[in-house]
Amino acid sequence: MKIVVLAGGLSPEREVSLSTGTMVCNALREKGQDAILVDLFYGVEELPGDMESFFADKTPLSPYVIESAVPDLSRLREESRNRPYGTIGKNVIELCKAADIVFMALHGEPGENGMVQAMLDMLDIKYTGAGYRGSAIAMDKALTKHILVSRGINTAEDIMLKRGDPLPDVPLPCIVKPCSGGSSIGVRKVFDKADVLPAVEEAFKYENDILIEKFVSGREITCGVLGDTALPPAEVIPKGDFYDYAHKYQSGLITEVCPAELPAEVTEEVQKISLQVFRALGLEVYARMDFIYDGRKFYCLEANTLPGMTPTSHLPQEAKAMGISYPDLCMRIIQLSLEKYNK
What we know:
Structural class: alpha+beta
Shape: globular
Mean pLDDT: 89
Number of strands: 13
Helix content: 25-40%
Order of helices and strands: EHEHHHEHHHEEEHEEEEHEHEEHH
Strand content: 15-25%
Largest sheet: 6 strands, antiparallel
Number of helices: 12
């Protein structure tokens, strides 16, 4: 199969996406597929006369190293204003059209909020994972919480703020976060009243809508869904007070236990809730749900429609605990995605 692994873009999660894309591309090449890694933002300057040979390259790509700080994208954003094709790189569409399927390795906007999926749908290009509607819903944490509450699924109490709204009294401790972000970018845990405004200002650097959630103390549990099966859940234990961007992508900053050390009935419960969230949001193929478990019940934090596939990511570890290797996981995602188009 000819496969474009689409990564990069202009999201603050750009580097995470490039790490995911590099690993996925190498895994697909290992499985004998004709896979190429394409940066959504940069694209490919010149297309070869022989497209088949372009896809046939099996040279392993060097691992992409994620820096500890969130990337500064101001230069790239300025560059996008001065080129005719904007934020979509040169020849990206042509390459996607030439492929049998596009493996979505994007994180954050515009790949995880459904915009790229909608564009590919209009061009009749097949891609992996959820469609544009489910992607857009899951990316919006406020809308997600509204849907989950209507289905009887626990989430943390919250207040939604739009840019310019007066700052209300908020419960302490609390979590302040962008409404549609990922990788804990712009997220702060707040204990003191004096720290609320700086946390709000930080979140507004990334989006015009933010959430202030009542802090729920407990164990951090993730649980992936692949097809119609919930994977073994994992527990994340950060070495420090908060599971931030650096903790997520720098080795040695967290302890992960997979499968999570939970009683069998509690494991079954979080798997059941994960499937309920997956279906309530209209998701397809695969996703990962994040929870806080307070010892009595689970609180769903979010659903990730394009979960990370980096060396420290949870979904591959959960699949491995079920006997699915990383290359086989990538192929299973493609298989399930192609089946979606045959229904």
